[in-house]
Structures
1.
Amino acid sequence: MAKKKNVSEVKRIKALREEIEAHNHHYYVLDAPVVPDSVFDKLLQDLQALEEERPDLITEDSPTQRVGGAPLDRFETVVHQVPMLSLQNAFSDDELFDFDRRCREGAGRTSMTYMAEPKIDGLAISLRYENGQLTRAATRGDGRNGEDVTLNARTISSIPLRLVGKNPPRALEVRGEVFMPVAGFNRLNDQQRINGEKLYANPRNAAAGSLRQLDPKVCANRPLSFFCYALGALNGVSQPDNQNDLLDFFKNIGLPVNSISREVQGVDQCLAYYKEILEARSTLDYEIDGVVYKVSSFKDQERIGFVSRAPRWAMAHKFPAQEETTQVKVIEIQVGRSGALTPVARLEPVFVGGVTVSNATLHNAAEIDRLDVREGDTVVIRRAGDVIPEVVSVIKDRRKKNAKRYRFPEHCPVCGSEAPVDAGGIIRRCSAGLSCSAQVKESIKHFVSRKALDVEGMGSKLIEQLVDNGRIRSAADLFTLTQSELAKLDRMGEKSAANLISALEKSRATTLPRFLYSLGIPQVGETTSETLASSFGSLETLMKSSIDALEAVSDVGPVVAGGIRRFFDQNHNVLIINSLIKHGIFWDTTPTQFNPTGVFKDKTVVITGTLPSMSRDQARQWLIEQGAKVSAGVSKRTDYLVAGADPGSKLEKALALGVEVLDEEQLKALVRSELA
Ligand code: IVH
């Protein structure tokens, strides 16, 4: 009897491992997960539980063995039998033309086929598989001698512990890049900040710092990933003929390769690829610092050969750097719409991330303290994607002797009122509210912005001018402006004054969610404005609602509810709202028909991303008509997530929680099927 149980445990463990490996393969290699993360986690837990009962059945390559073993004293040195090479760099198109000419001449061809790949910004690693088992992982080091980081590499989920397929190569050495995805990097730094530990300057440093941890358990908790792109050695199976087939071969045996690599013909297609990837750069969830072109045919590669430590047949075409050094001229304080004092470093202009940058945010006083940045300092600044440029570190060696530590002001630099630290304990806020002209300016800028009342042509400079000369004191005053007075202002003519008046006219017709958003109530963004509008139906009801009623709205917690109540309790806000309505701002007040017997009765739905044929607002109205409760954030209680293009983190969260995800078509089909 006992024996039978053993046999079934052995089988069950084997089956679970195979299932987990198959899911890993779908997730990391095929880029097409078939189950939500929660299902995957459950399988892993089941396997762990079984292995706890039967420790004798634990094998090195079991998926449970990625949690990291005992810490090391130091890393052993590994000698790379086949050296790990570096790449020649090109920063201009001309250098690329030269490279192409050299390759064609070397191979004796008139036109050349290249494999074009993104250049992942991480660190190179070499993995050794013997009979399909991962036996060693080593860093590049100086190309000849690296460090043995096997225990750490084993904790990286996208590195298979075992290759797939019945006949794995006898020996395989594969090279690739270990990197940290941007989302994971941000989460790691948030955590480091909370723990009072050092922050990593960028994802590459974080990846390198993580892979070089002596304690594999630390590395296991770092969100590292891996793509492979080159062969070190291969025995026991025949070698592919070209880079394209090599990448397919990797993929077939279960090794993750980057999906945006592509074969291209000649230098024109290389350039087209470069432009395409440069544009896509900020949408990728990992950092790249250029693209790599490789002569695809291995025979051609042999003919072309090497220059010192780099192949002559490959070239990295670099993107504009995302980090540069420059000097801080002064540190200034900006006062935001809610009075927050934000320090900004005014910089010697520098070209970084493809644009010239002359300001970088320093976030808050704590961040200035952490960096110890001083006026006159030489700093590293970073602009990644569309993110606001920030100072990442100070080059202390270049600090001038007399540089003084920065003292954060305790008063508003614009109106002189006290600026105490707020309840969160980090941000100082000017206490003067709308008596402070900076706050007035910022609140009017917000009021006219695209997602608010969208007054086209009403720029920042114009608003500043009108507030400075005392002509306007609030958003409501905008509607008292006349064409003739606007035409007399700096940089204005009759035509732009007329356009502005008609833009103001047009902005009067709005929607309740937009109007609420435009008021700039603390912490009330677009989505919360929509939720408030649909929950309370009218502005009057919302303005009169109690804290309890506000908190009853999904996604509105005590802090937001308190902020909303305080906003409507302040007389000057009520005066501005009344004045705006007196000046003719209006919206459709027909209440959305709530259908208590609709298909979505009692269902909580979240909408994310851009839907193909309706706006989120329309989708929300429509869902409410079907009886749904539309909420802003995904939680365990969410029944459906309706996802359009660029769904962001809500989709990830929904998948992780096992929430059903619908696209617009599926949503409509569901309603149709229920109605039929
Ligand atoms: S090929 C024989 N391909 O860039 C060629 N390298 O600057 C060896 N890298 O050390 C490298 N993405 O760490 C290659 N698609 C890619 C790459 C890539 C990133 C890194 C790698 C290498 C460095 C050279």
2.
Amino acid sequence: MQPDLTFHRARRRRLLQTLGEGVLILATAPEAIRNRDAHYPYRFDSHFYYLTGFPEPEAVLVLIAAGHSNARPRQILFCREKNEEREIWDGFRYGPKAAKAAFGFDAAYPIAELDKRLPGLLENQTRLAYPFGADPAWDTRVMGWINTVRSKARAGVSAPATLTDAHALIDPMRLVKDEHEIELMQRAADLSAAGHRAALAACRPGKGEWEIEGALLGAFRQGGCQAPAYTPIVAGGANACVLHYVSNDQVLRDGDLLLIDAAGEYHGYAADITRTFPVNGRFSGPQQDAYEIVLAAQAAAIDAARPGNGWNAPHEAALRVLTQGLVDLKILAGDLDNLLEKEAYKPWYMHRTGHWLGLDVHDAGEYKQPGGAWRTLEPGMALTVEPGLYLRPGPQVPAALENIGIRIEDDVVVTAAGPRVLTAGAPKTIEDIEEAMHGD
Ligand code: GLY
Ligand code: MN
Ligand code: MN
């Protein structure tokens, strides 16, 4: 499935309406050196890609709204020129002419003409929207263009007086996914779930965490993901209690659990899946007790991901089940409401239950409304639901539960008909996991 550019054009039109008047400037991400002359794999800027679908580096989007007296709305792309020699070494580039046609712009110019053309495009405009503060080098360049326009004041030319954060205009759009985005997210989720199934099949005592990581990454790529959506966590035993464990260099032991937080990116869209299962394919009694608590917390949290509920409703639902579970495991004692009030769960559940998901794994969009209340969930919003329990050794943790770390994470789209789980292809009930590992 390829990006459908009619959706990108529709997004630019909507953004122009929101902008009302003035100019918006948005650059894509730079290429990044890994070491000496070796680069990291290139990844475009998410805001830029959301609006353009244009995948190359060294590109800038300029949108001009209709509000200005003699302007008509214009959508302009600056990009690299065709270059036969560079294309022999580095591969295809569109060049302005082909990019204009293929990506639906009104005009496209060589990126080398940016400094020459931009001051003219800013003349007599009232407003400039640009992601101020995101990149100091671009900040300097943009302020240079504004100052060039200001220097013409005595000739009667005015510079934009209102400076607006472009991300603040785009983030609310990205928060509610359109139908095309949800299709791409479902594909990212399906391919990522296939990776988790490959990991289940590959897992046994004596294997290295890195081998399971290899099975995951291989499956993501073979399925058609362009990249992992984030660095995989493959954490056996006590490593699962380290929230951002990424060294993935230990040998898996019989009797331990394995926590995997890994997913792929498909045409820019991230999935984000965590599964926890026994290295030897059978949950012990204490592992099962703890697992069922996290699974029940997740079910309650997913059920709360409904239109009209506040952003925090899934978190609150998970906290209630997890805290009762900690009482049942004899780690906590006392009245449930009182324990929740005191945040008594914090030593064993210290993170939130989810985040927005989309082009970025921790996606764009505010969690609170301007007055401070949690944002209300609406159809089309996409979020993760990822409760966990991390039972590091300590005076309150019974010996049988020590070093058990469990997280279960799914990706959910809020719909009028209720929560839609995108990541159901990754087994998560005890029965399904044991069956996947043993075939019984
Ligand atoms: N994998 C990143 C997260 O779960 O937030
Ligand atoms: Mn997550
Ligand atoms: Mn995750």
3.
Amino acid sequence: MAKKVAVIGAGVSGLISLKCCVDEGLEPTCFERTEDIGGLWRFKENVEDGRASIYQSVITNTSKEMSCFSDFPMPEDFPNFLHNSKLLEYFRIFAKKFDLLKYIQFQTTVLSVKRRPDFSSSGQWEVCTQNNGKEQCAVFDAVMVCSGHHIQPHIPLTSFPGIERFKGQYFHSRQYKHPVGFEGKRILVIGIGNSASDIASELSKKAAQVFVSTRQGSWVMSRISKDGYPWDMVFHTRFSSMLRNVLPRMVVKWMMEQQISQWFNHENYGLEPQNKYLMKEPVLNDDLPSRILYGAIKVKTRVKELTETAVIFEDGTVEENIDVIIFATGYTFSFPFLEDSLVKVENNMVSLYKFMFPPQLEKPTLVCIGLIQPLGSIFPTVELQARWVTRVFKGLCGLPSEKTMMEDIIKRNKKRIDLFRESQSQILQTNYIDYLDELALEIGVKPDFVSLFLKDPKLVLKLYFGPCNSYQYRLVGPGQWEGARNAILTQKQRILKPLKTRALKKSSSVSASLLLKALGLLAVVVAFFFHLQWL
Ligand code: FAD
Ligand code: NAP
């Protein structure tokens, strides 16, 4: 008998969970509290309760080739980094292609998810929902929680003495939509995450002055990497991931620091991370350094105190006449519809096996999808999570004992703190390729490079030295897709296509072509180290 699965939320995690359920022959029903798909990526002028809220200008910080689902490349003419409306368009095409909308009950909020009395034998859940004021309950064999974790603002007012007497306006970045209304103001943005950097850069074009207050600093990277390729296609290769794993940590950090600092010296710009030997999520922002260089943004230390109109910083400097403070201080999360004990955050640790399964359940029939912050794109990450989970639901893959899972959670958390440190903003942080491979191994879709090398050396070189994108996990094993090899070999075409908007005449002299060949040979040698030629 097909298993009935409840999917909570129709954002990216919910959509891919639906597809994976269908692929595995399960019977999904998705409950989405709003009237449409897309979750976070569906911009609205107003902030809605219970749904993530973005500003109008949000653009992905992971590129299209690294962010698409593994058997569904983005259209060739899509830009490499996508405006939120364009990404939503991709989700719409995806949902249509795989006929997913028919499984979604819109304007239906999940109120509670409870274990059935016979849970220890059946593993079943009672899911109660509300639609137009009408409450309904139904029984499901499994539940995939895809409700997102950028909904509840983290706004640490107690760390800002004097905020109660501040006479200006203050709010969380979740409330920010666009720069209209901020013309001529003196604005302080708290934090130096991606939201803070985007909002400060945008506002600095309209405001009288923008200040950014950071307690720790951050590495800032450009979306554009070597030769103009998207950063993540160069950064996330198996070759560089292997180097990062085998070289001593200090050497890796030093190399990364050298690489990042080639763009600009972070110390001179007041941005250098305080503990630079830790790898927290970098900021991806091409505007921020230039806005600082123009003086439109001034970087400040931690806030010590606020008065009615001024901000006093830890270094003793004071900025008078501040009109607006924006807390771009990240998010917390909770699952009000779940029993308290199911997904716990204790001692800065999320108690989920591989960021998905509560280890204490007698039956592995409830998971969180997307409750993770990988150093790369979340889209292939949630896809592999959903592919694995649906196979666990079907009994095709198993989980270890509760004790082993708990040990793994603790070990993983220690490693996380060691790499990314303890801050609230890094609680869900994880390495990218290592995590993808870990899930791929569970499913049986990690390519075996040795046997593949004998059959298809050209492909293996691309897999190892080129970008580690999701197509790699459709080459072998369950869910194999015959278009995967071609998608890997043609990715460069899809990167360049949207850039080729001006036809250029090529010079065809023989000497130029010989010179090019010689340079090409040299490039192969050099590129072995920079592995760009495998794109
Ligand atoms: P969401 O998109 O938040 O969707 C959750 C859905 O669940 C919503 O539709 C909501 O209405 C619904 N829901 C919630 N509660 C209930 C309930 N009780 N009942 C029914 N429905 C419910 N990651 C990247 O990889 N690349 C990026 O470029 C990137 N950019 C980002 C930019 C911003 C501003 C932010 C905040 C995050 C970004 N991320 C990025 C990370 C982000 O987490 C993912 O991009 C992704 O959108 C998360 O999808 P999700 O489906 O898990 O959650
Ligand atoms: P975030 O990454 O959690 O960053 C929060 C920032 O607030 C950090 O700089 C943090 O500093 C600071 N902060 C937290 N508590 C503080 C306190 N008490 N006092 C002072 N500072 C404090 O949140 P976010 O920027 O909103 O990003 C959330 C997620 O969305 C991230 O994964 C991000 O990549 C993503 N995003 C992507 C884009 C895009 O371009 N596509 C845009 C926006 C957001 P510490 O580091 O010192 O803790």
